[in-house]
Amino acid sequence: MGETVSGSQAASQPVLWLGDAASGDPRSVGGKAAQLSRLHGVCEVPDAFCVTTDAYAAYEAAGSMPPEVASAIVAAYEELAARSDVQPGSGVSAPLAVAVRSSAADEDGAAASFAGQHETQLNVRGSDDLLKAVESVWRSAHSESAHAYRRELGLDTVPVAVAVLVQRLVRCDASGVAFTVDPVSSDDDKIVISASWGLGESLVGGTINPDRWVLDKERLSVLHRTIGDKDLMTVTQERGTHEVKTPSFLRQSASLDDDHVRSVATIAKDLETRLRHAVDVEFGVVDGRPVLLQCRPVTTIGTGIEAGGVDR
Amino acid sequence: MTQPNRRSYSDGIPNAASDYRLPPQLPPPWTDPRDAELYFEQDLTHFPHPLAMLDYDFAKHCVDHGMSMAVKRLSSPFRTEMRRFWTHVYTREVLYCPPQEVQEVWNTTTREAFAPMLADLGRHWSNVWLPEIRAAQRSWSAFDLEGASDADLADHLARSLQLIRRVWEIHFEVVYSVGHAWNMYYETFMELFEGATRLEAMTPLEGLDNMTAEAGRAIWQLAELAQAVPAVAETVASSDPSEALARLRDTPGAEVFLTGFDDYLQAYGHRSTSINLSSKSLVEDPTPVVSQLRDALTNPGSDPRRHQDGRNRDREQAIERARLALEHYPGQFRKEFEHRLAQAQVAVQLKENHNFVIDYECTAAMRRLVMEVARRLVVTGSLERQEDVLHLSLEELQAAANALAKNVTGALDLSMLVAERAAEMERYAGVEVPTTLGTPPPKPPAEASEAPAPEPGTFVGVGMSAGVARGRVRVARSFDDAGALRPGEVLVATSTTQPWSPLFATAAALVTEAGGVLSHVGVIAREYRLPAVSGVAKAVDVLKDGMIVEVDGLAGVVRVISEG
């Protein structure tokens, strides 16, 4: 299916599809996309393509979006819509909603997570908005806060290259983050999962008090369960997302049932084994199925950086 | 004659009825001066007109009982109590928790009790409520009123009065379920569309069919039958409605219409127009149907059927808008919204259907029965006219039916009683009565502090469980103290928790300082039918062991009868 827009000559391609062999190379698609691409088929990940570092280089050289890059992005977007059974211009769900995320070549490496440093745009709809979003992510790679972060970690202040991941948007019923090591106590016998209703921004942004589970990693049994009073949640709107009051009957009810919690933990544990490194997994649950949105090596052990704090 | 100043009835009334300045034609409404501490409002919604004694008694028999059952079985935090003053109906609200907690209790405890019904209201109506109502109606229509012996008729009256009470329990189960279904839907709708109006929330529920609407459409179908024969249409449109039917019987070509008319009455005419026994059913007096037909013929533009498509379209568009907005929300919310919408749609239908079947059809059946008893009382000379039966109390009616059964009506002359009650109706006809009576409920805290203190020896709390009981006070500051409680004593405690419950069977009444319905006091006390008052400040200090007190669990009042 992807043959029309992907090819074997990765270096000359402005766009590559996740799951294709060439997408496993972080130099072309960035660390985040390469990681996800390798997990394609291992667990459910949203259909996605990547605007490559080559495309970024062409943009840098031209000072604006080169027409051939733009048309490749639009063609891939239409292909993604076709794969998602959404016909452009038909029905209430068209045009296809996507998540646009940065995937820098040195991002999501084992030494630095870059979480939240580069722009992510959820619920981008239509090719015009998509092209704007891609450019915006490219520009954000130069943003002040990203530079500061890089300086602190001793990386080059100008990223080597920035790829942009374009994922079919998953309208999650609930979303969350799973750590295969307690990010505060560094206890690696546990899996710690936080989750809340809707999209993950309210959780990741730390504006709410999420539900939390602590599982025994060996037996995958739930050791602690804390249900938070989740007063806000992030949902999509016509374009983009916004934070709304959580419907009252959902506020204090668990955003995941224990079966979901265990299947998320199973995925996280499996990814840790495959990557031979503790992982931080961002996931969504839609119609009862967990979907992997991002997977990063855990880089903040012992620093207490995690949304929602830790219950004891 | 000076116009009564309405404000004067509720202003400046400390505790005694003697302070009332009623217009000369209105005597004090109650004999027990303590009633002045209660607060009554005229129930103009349900009873806009003066009620004859039997109408009032019957309504109270049905409504008070039905609501009490709803309170007991379904943990309703409130009910209303009916009273009749100067032939008008007044009600007062009886709360089973502090006023500020009513909403919370209603939305939690009560909603939970209704959960089995709210899971599928339509199904509950079709499979549980309606069959039971229909069974009662069958027992009434199957009974041979004219052919029954006096003894059988008296039995049937007694049984029917029991049966109608059960029907009214169902009535309040339906009414409260409808209320819950609406609240739950409305709450969810407002969360989806912040700042929406009530009207906008109603649109997805509009234009659905119900029995009242069906009966309304049938009128227009009858009008079409009338229009098919110009002479019939002309007669209906131009005659006095009370004479039209007689004239139609002599109108050539009217046969098809008259058959249709009879079919209509059979299907929809066994209804009263109110829950009063005095109101005739449409079968007894079809004049209102003829009037509606005349209006239909003379104003064809008001045919409600022509708006149906538009209302269906508005509804479906509103639902579509809601579903579009819901697309952004978690599936759990979409599912819950759809469920609440479906239940609210059924609720809107049941709101009409239960009135149709219970309030009107069942009342009409009871009227037929009562009028048969009255007919026989006229035959024996106990009553002068059949309609005079409406001046009897329910108890007097039953006594009269039993006297018929024992063939002892010779000694039963009801004419004095009837004359007295008829005179009472006449005396107050046209007299303006106050719309509120008694002591208004406490205002918000700032003003409450200015409220007059209760009489010495009287302590006011919140009624938690109905009933009046007297007994010796047993103060229990702890659960251990409570072991000293002897049967028939009034248990006085700061608060009670679940382990105290067995004591509720020993005590004559319960008085606590704290505790709302949520704290189990009310729930358990009602389960034990134990008169209970909570919210009595410093109860364990002001009430002392050995005092004799009277506890009114409905009014929420404790009175010291003797210091012991």
List its salient traits.
heterodimer, A: 312 residues, alpha+beta, five-stranded antiparallel β-sheet, 29% helix, globular, disordered N terminus, disordered C terminus, B: 564 residues, eight-stranded mixed β-sheet, four-stranded antiparallel β-sheet, 12 strands
Strand-residue proportion of chain B: 5-15%
Total helical elements of chain A: 8
Largest interface: A-B, 19 and 14 residues
Task: Sketch the topology of chain B as an H/E string, one letter per element.
Answer: EHEEHHHHHHHHHHHHHHEHEEEEEHEHEE
- Indicate the percent of residues in helices of chain A: 25-40%
Number of strands of chain A: 13
Radius of gyration of chain A: 19 Å
Quick synopsis:
With 312 residues, chain A is α+β, with helices and mostly antiparallel strands. Chain A has helices at 26-39, 53-62, 67-83, 127-140, 144-152, 201-204, 248-251, 258-275, and strands at residues 15-17, 48-51, 97-104, 120-125, 162-168, 174-179, 190-197, 211-216, 221-226, 232-236, 241-245, 279-286, 289-297. Chain A is built from 8 helices and 13 strands.
What would you say this structure looks like, in words?
The complex is a heterodimer of chains A (312) and B (564). Chain A is of the alpha+beta class. Helices cover 29% and strands 26% of the residues of chain A. Chain A is built from eight helices and 13 strands. Chain B is an alpha+beta fold and 564 residues long. In chain B, the strands form two sheets. In chain B, strands 5-12-11-7-8-9-10-6 form an eight-stranded mixed β-sheet, covered by helices on one side. In chain B, strands 2-3-1-4 form a four-stranded antiparallel β-sheet. Chain B is globular. The two termini of chain B are 51 Å apart. The model of chain B is unreliable at 1-20, 445-451 and 516-520 (pLDDT under 50). Chain A binds chain B through residues 92-93, 171-174, 197-198, 233, 235-237, 245, 247-250, 286-287, and chain B through 187-188, 191-192, 194, 324, 327-333, 336.
